[in-house]
Amino acid sequence: AKKLGVRYSFLFMKASGAQLATLAALYDNGTLRPVLDRTFPFDETVEAMAYVEQGKAKGKVVITR
Predict the structure, then answer these.
(1) What values do phi and psi take at 38, rounded to 5?
(2) Measured on CA atoms in the order 11, 65, 61, 28, is the torsion positive or negative?
(3) Where are the beta strands (DSSP E) in the chain?
(4) Is the pTM of this model over 0.70?
(5) Using CA atoms, how far apart are residues 65 and 62, in angstroms rounded to an integer?
């Protein structure tokens, strides 16, 4: 990350409306940006799960309808 000039940190969540509001604000102002790896249509959910289980994902895997 340092070589590429990016920063990251870990965030541990619990069921908390206050933390959710904080996350929403970070997302809204562009500080928190999710990394999307791949998007699968709903009818390929099994393939998406297999992809995640293989450990190939380098970000979030999204299933769309």
Answers:
(1) -150, 155
(2) negative
(3) 36-41, 60-64
(4) no
(5) 10
